[in-house]
Model the fold of this input.
Amino acid sequence: MSLHQRPSLFSVELRTARWEELIEWYRNVLGLRVLVRVVDDGYALFEAGDTRLAILNRPSPGEPSQRWSLGFEVVDLDAVHARLAATDSDVTAPKLHAGGFRELITTDPDGNRIRLFSWPVGH
Done:
């Protein structure tokens, strides 16, 4: 398979019964930019670097899974940590990993696991 035939991940979709709350959290707390928001369809699409995050309004979305997490690279991990702490989000303190990056773990209002990390300046 050539490089041009490989699939490109367009988006990750999260189903929720708390659509408005998740949209506000991903926009205002995490800082993602809304690309599309269609209230009648219960659909929102966020810019998340080279891919996108879709939030879908569903009456029975299912339970969050411990099998996966959303990983976001950020520039200023301390600023993100402060923003999360100010909203009473369940968040770990930033931790330095042997690989040279710093990381924290939090959950969105639905309990989905979110990993945020940053590389040292100049990396």
